[in-house]
Structure prediction request, 97 residues.
Amino acid sequence: MALSLFTVGQLIFLFWTLRITEANPDPAAKAAPAAVADPAAAAAAAVADTASDAAAAAAATAAAAAKAAADTAAAAAKAAADTAAAAAEAAAATARG
Prediction:
């Protein structure tokens, strides 16, 4: 019997989710046995992970701010060019008569 596209889609999603879960296991699940074995090392790893997350967030914020600044500069340049073109057109119309 033929499987419906919906069922095929569900199976693909299931296997895709399982593959991602196996490739990137839950950090909390990995940290629990490590915390029992060596609490100091587990705490240091948690601090390092938090620091890397903070650094990634800061980098993303800086990138967003740079993009916003570039977009603002581009919009200002376009507005200035449009204003200059309108002024030149008005001057030409005045000179014609």
Q: What stands out?
A: The chain has one domain: 3-96.
